[in-house]
# Entry
Amino acid sequence: MDWSKHYAERLSLMGHSEVAQILELTSRPEVISLAGGLPSPDSFLLEETQEEAISVFRDLGSASLGYGPTEGLPPLREALAERMTLKGRSSGKGEILLTTGGIAALDLICKALLESGDFVIIEEPSYLAAIQVFRSYGAQFLGIPTDQDGVCLDALEVRLDELIASGRRPKFFYIIPSFQNPSGNCLATERREKLVGICNARGIPIVEDGAYEDLRFEGEFQSNLASIDPEVVHVNTFSKIMHPGLRLGWINGPDVLIEKLALCKQGQDQCSSTSGQHLAERFLRKGLVEQQLRKSRAIYREHRDLTIEAFKENFPKESLASRPQGGFYCWIDLPEEINTVRLLPEVVESENVAYVGGSAFYHDRDMGTNQIRLAYSFVSGDKLKDAVARLGRFFQSKLSA
# Structure
C-alpha cells in the first residue's frame, strides 16, 4: 500500500525531525553526543528511587497500577500546588493538571487554543520541539530577537503592534525565561514584569516553560512569570528535577483553563502514569526532589565550566559563547562563513562528536546557520572537554582552509 496517499495534511506541516535525529545520535556508542538535552545519569537518586518505588507497590498494591483521574492524582496535584505557591504563584490543586511530560503539556495547550493559521509569538532562537508542536497545529510565527538578557522588549512591542494593526492577533507568547533552550540565557529581572505588562495590555496570554528554572547553580534567584501574574500559564516537567523516564509534567494555570485542558487530555492519553505519579508525590513530600536538585546543580556547574574552558582554548577567536548560570546548554556563534548545519554530517564522521545546528531553533530555517547548541548536561569530565575541543579544532580548520 502507498501510505503517502493516506497521510493527513498536517504531516507536511511538521517539517524536519531534529528531535528524532538527536535521540538517534545519542544512541550511537561511537559518537560523543552534545546534541540531546539529557540529564546526567549521575544526578539520579537510584537507591532512593528503588526504595520509594517498592514502597508505592507495597503500600498501595494493585491500586498503583490502575487508571487514575485525568487531571492527575489529588495528592500530587496538591504537592505541586504547594510547590508553585512557595515560588510565588498562589495555587490550589484545581489549578494543576498532570501531563505526560512537558511536550504533552504544550500539545494540550495547542489543542485547546490554536486554530490553523493562528500566530504564536516565540523568542528566537527557541525550543525546537515546541516549534515542531506549534507547527503541527498549523501555527504561524512571530519571532522576536533575543540578546544575552532575553527577549528584546522594544522589538516585541513594535512587531506585536504591527501584527495587531494588520488585523491579526497572536494566540499566545511561548517563552522560556530561565536558562533558555537553546541559549542558556535568562530573561533579565527588570524585563520580566515589563514583558507581562506588554502582553496583558494587548490581551495576549503567556505560556511560560519553566523546565530549567530549578537548575540555577550561579547567580541570584529570579521569580518566574507566573508569580508576577497568575494568568500566566506555567508548563513544567519532572524530567529535569527527577528523571525523564517518569514521563510526567504539569500545567499550572487558571482553573477555567485547566478544566478545558483536562477535557483535551481525555482525547490525548486519558491519564498519565499512575505509579509514576505516586512515586513523584513521595519524592516531593520527602524532600528527595530538592536533594536531587542540589546534586544536579553541582554536576551541571562543573560541566558548564569544562565546556567554557574548552571553548576558550580551541574555538576560533571570532566565536562567541553564552555563559549560562544554570540549565543544560551553551549557545555558540561562529563566524558567518561557517555553515554548521551543512557541516554536521562531516563533523560526526570525522570527529565522532554531535551538536545541533542553529537553524533548528528558528521558524525560518535560513537563520542560525552559523550557530550551534551544545548540551553539556549528559557527557562529563575529560570526555566532555575533549568533545568540545574536537569541535573547536574542526571549525578552526575550516576557517584556515
Residues 128 and 361 are 5 Å apart (CA to CA). The first helix runs from residue 10 to 13.
